[in-house]
Amino acid sequence: MSAPHIRSAMSRHRTVFMPFAALVFLCIGGSALGAGIQIIPADPTDHDYIVIRIIGARPDTCWRLGGFQCLPVEGNTFPVSVFWVDDWEPGLGCGDMIVDFVEHCCPGVLLPPGTYTVVVTEHNDSLRETGTFVTTLEFTIDSVIGMRQASWGAIKMIHR
């Protein structure tokens, strides 16, 4: 394939990719973290070890993940820091590709029943987008003791 044909094929590919990238960009919340915070398992009890999953993305290849920290628990709050570095400079072009990440924090202890909060703080080192952005998720840990209050005899009486 000659060079003009390659450029033509690449141009068509870019035309298709650009709207798709723009759609994904809008779906993840623009250039901000678009942080998804998930608790695994989804409905934890006081007998579950939880995992906190942090999902984020950036809109172009000038961004890179500069660091990720699961900080010590403060009361019922799980602080997490995400550090983004933007290598963009005026006059520099960036590739139209989503830069994403998935990281996990594992507290490693059984938590007592109660309400907890995950606080993800995004720190930007960028000329285009400066500042700090915060995303939070509140979740509850239930007690499994409440599920075991009925005796087997009481359960059999219900189903007779």
Compose a concise summary of this entry:
With 160 residues, this protein is α+β, with helices and mostly antiparallel strands.
Describe this structure in words.
This protein is an alpha+beta fold and 160 residues long. The protein has one domain. Helix content is 20%, strand content 38%. It contains two helices and seven strands; from the N terminus they run αβββββββα. The chain is elongated, with a radius of gyration of 23 Å. It starts with a helix and ends with a helix.
Q: Which spans of ≥5 residues are poorly predicted at pLDDT below 50?
A: 1-33
> Mean pLDDT score, rounded?
79
Radius of gyration of CA atoms, rounded to a whole number: 23 Å
Helices and strands: which structural class?
Answer: alpha+beta
Q: Describe the largest sheet.
A: 4 strands, mixed
Estimated helix fraction: 10-25%
Discrete helix count: 2
- The number of domains: 1
β-strand percent reads 35-45%
Pattern of helices and strands: HEEEEEEEH
Sequence of strands across the biggest β-sheet: 3-4-6-7
Terminus-to-terminus distance: 78 Å
| Structure summary, number of beta strands | 7
Q: Which geometry do the CA atoms define? A: elongated
Topology at a glance:
Blueprint: H1 3-27, E1 36-40, E2 51-58, E3 63-70, E4 77-86, E5 99-105, E6 114-125, E7 131-141, H2 152-158
Parallel strand pairs: 4-6
Antiparallel strand pairs: 1-2, 2-5, 3-4, 6-7
Question: What tags apply to this protein structure?
Answer:
2 helices; three-stranded antiparallel beta sheet; 38% strand; 160 residues; alpha+beta; disordered N terminus
